[in-house]
Design brief:
N-(1-d-carboxylethyl)-l-norvaline Dehydrogenase, domain 2, Rossmann fold, 2 domains, about 280 residues
Length: about 280
């Protein structure tokens, strides 16, 4: 871990901003990259807000500490800024046609020592590693949303991932105050192979008129003690991400059980993506 001082974060959406925040709070120099200036601007505001809340909640600290967290982050649209990164965490959309060119670009700009971690929902890590010339230095780090409030990360070992790469990743998580559960590579890994089926089946129940979204979620919260129901969870993750993940799982396994609900497709086509769009199964301010 003594060799990791600068961490790159690719993608400034909800997950990327959360990852950048926890890294900067832990004292790392962070380079947050996104091609969209609006995404970087929004991420900067969200990180400031999140860091201020974190300090107020845990330390009673004033605003200037949140500003200090943000000051550790370089916001840029240029992947070449990752030339000095020791570790990179990729958070782009769950679409192989989008991800693959990112890894080609990272291969070109990152030094040979750099570890590449995919914060992916379902795409196999071995497939991602094959897009690089450093498969031993590629692994999965599946952070959960919201990142600053979660203490555990699903860490995925690809076919070629080295013990040294895993050790460095786990040490990085420990520095963030998080722990990693290491699993072997499989589409969707453990969490999303189960979770995406659960959310999709819950959507089918609403589509068929068996129960309302609120009642489906109430059963899971009140009967099983879940903090959030499956449809609230889907709104939090983003219904577009749920759809893409199910499509990856269906393609990878060739199993119709992963076929996305027609209602899910319709909501995504309508732009009702959950919290990030202001409406999904529920409305948000």
């Amino acid at each position: 871990m003594e060799n990791v001082t600068t961490v790159g974060v690719v993608g400034a959406g909800v997950m990327g901003a959360g990852v950048a925040q926890v890294l900067a709070q832990a004292g790392f120099a962070v380079v947050l990259v996104d091609h969209a200036p609006a995404a970087l601007e929004k991420a900067q505001a969200e990180i400031y807000r999140g860091a201020r809340f974190h300090h107020l909640l845990r330390k009673g600290a004033p605003q200037h500490q949140a500003a200090e967290v943000v000051s550790r982050i370089t916001f840029t649209g240029d992947l070449a800024a990752l030339a000095g990164a020791d570790f990179v965490i990729e958070n782009v959309t769950e679409d192989w046609a989008v991800k693959q060119p990112v890894y080609a670009a990272l291969e070109a700009v990152c030094p040979p020592r750099t570890i590449l971690a995919a914060n992916t929902s379902a795409i196999p890590i071995t497939q991602i590693a094959a897009a690089t010339r450093r498969p031993a230095q590629v692994l999965g780090m599946h952070f959960m949303n919201p990142v600053p409030l979660k203490d555990t990360v699903e860490v995925i070992r690809g076919h070629h991932t080295s013990a040294a790469t895993l050790s460095t990743a786990l040490a990085l998580l420990a520095a963030l105050g998080q722990s990693g559960v290491v699993v072997n590579d499989s589409p969707g890994f453990v969490s999303n192979r189960v979770l995406m089926l659960t959310i999709n089946e819950a959507i089918c129940l609403v589509h068929e008129g068996v129960a309302s979204a609120a009642d489906v979620d109430k059963i899971f919260k009140d009967c099983f003690g879940h903090k959030m129901g499956p449809l609230e969870t889907g709104d939090l993750i983003g219904l577009d991400t749920i759809l893409l993940s199910l499509e990856v799982l269906q393609q990878q396994f060739g199993d119709p059980k992963f076929r996305p609900s027609p209602l899910l497709r319709r909501l995504v086509q309508a732009g009702l993506l959950g919290r990030k769009s202001g409406q999904g199964f529920y409305r948000y301010n």
